[in-house]
Specification:
Blueprint: H1 19-33, H2 38-50, H3 57-64, H4 76-88, H5 100-122, H6 124-129, H7 142-156, H8 168-196, H9 225-234, H10 240-249, H11 256-266, H12 280-293, H13 298-306, H14 324-338
Length: 376
């Protein structure tokens, strides 16, 4: 048998599909990729909101497209919900292709709202303790991002999250603000990483798994665990639990040379951290969504920084440029080097600001200075 005539199980030769079926498949694909509309969302929410709150968004979406012809994959409880809904909403079920994008948006909105509620109900102390990066081996990202997005929207659009039937604009607003704060958190982590993970400290040999550093954010693959803990502890950025576990389980197993390496790194916390304005860039990256949301100028940003930075702080790590133009150049240099070709993280309004005009940022939206040395 010629090898080119062999087909893998499950594959379909497109030449054997009739033109009618091909046209139908193409039509379904077109419908599935068609952007959602407010009209579709308006028809989704009444039935969606009648479903039990303990159902996940994905389960709700599945129920709204269930037909009255059960398949072996259907969940019996879902079929029961679908039958009851069809009695009150004769237009159900929705076509799974035509409503594909609208149902995805409904799932996304519900997931973010549920995530926000769970964060504020169950994780508030953790999130608030993480705002200034008190540790750097168990950094929380998503919950901090949704917390900050909700705090901002509570001031700028206080009724948004109360909406039971959100349209495209409301859903996109929540998605954009969450994405902005998530990006800010990731940018800040990227700026802080070199303060712990000096390239010169990476092992030249491939380390066995048990000797590799583990944490969040993920350390470089060949970064030794004992150096990682020493760098974190020397700069006050290691959780007490991780430090205790290291000394009880690993320290005594180190070689004499590794113990010396640990002590050397622990006692030189400023190694690799001598740059001027070291934490200013990280603080600006973390608060870029706030600067943009409240349309702050470079002068406004400098005033905000000066109220939180001062030269007498630990290790002189809180200095600021002396004028807005220098601050602008300082930040744009970071943007050009770290995120070339990407949209500007900070985008002050165009034009010359009015004389004596200064925008105020509501209390609590700006995060504190990150990564201050607390050793000892």
């Amino acid at each position: 048998m010629a090898t080119d005539s062999i087909q893998t199980f499950g594959q379909i030769d497109s030449t054997e599909i009739s033109p009618t079926i091909q046209a139908n498949m193409l039509h379904q694909e077109t419908l599935a990729n068609k952007p959602a509309t407010d009209e579709q969302l308006a028809s989704i929410w009444p039935a969606w909101n009648e479903l039990p709150a303990d159902l996940s968004p994905i389960e709700k979406a599945d129920i709204l497209i269930l037909t009255d012809r059960p398949t072996v994959h259907d969940h019996q409880g879902h079929q029961d919900h679908a039958r009851k809904l069809r009695l009150r909403h004769p237009h159900l079920p929705f076509d799974c292709y035509e409503y594909n994008q609208a149902l995805k948006l409904a799932c996304r909105w519900s997931s973010l709202v549920n995530y926000a509620k769970n964060t504020f109900d169950n994780h508030l102390p953790l999130v608030e303790s993480q705002l200034d990066y008190p540790v750097f081996n168990q950094v929380v990202t998503g919950r901090v991002a949704i917390y900050r997005a909700v705090r901002e929207l509570g001031l700028t659009q206080p009724d948004l999250l109360k909406c039971q039937k959100p349209m495209l604009r409301q859903i996109q607003t929540l998605e954009r603000r969450y994405a902005a704060y998530l990006q800010a958190r990731e940018d800040t982590i990227g700026l802080l990483r070199p303060l712990v993970f000096l390239p010169s400290l990476e092992s030249e040999r491939e380390l066995p798994y048990e000797e590799r550093a583990l944490g969040l954010p993920n350390p470089p693959e060949n970064f030794p665990q004992h150096i990682y803990i020493a760098r974190l502890a020397g700069f006050g950025k290691c959780t007490l639990k991780s430090l205790a576990a290291f000394f009880s389980d690993q320290f005594l197993k180190l070689s004499r040379a590794q113990m010396d390496e640990f002590c050397n790194e622990f006692h030189r916390p400023t190694e690799g951290r001598q740059s001027r304005y070291l934490f200013l860039a990280a603080w600006m990256a973390d608060n870029a969504p706030v600067f943009n949301a409240f349309k702050l100028t470079w002068a406004d940003i400098l005033n905000a920084a000066r109220s939180r930075f001062n030269p007498q702080s630990p290790l002189d790590f809180r200095e600021c440029p002396d004028n807005p133009d220098n601050l602008k150049e300082f930040w744009k240099d970071h943007e050009n080097r770290l995120w070339p070709g990407q949209p500007r993280r900070i985008q002050p309004p165009n034009g010359r600001p009015a004389a004596n005009r200064q925008r105020e940022i509501p209390y609590g939206l700006l995060t504190p200075l990150p990564f201050v040395c607390r050793k000892g």
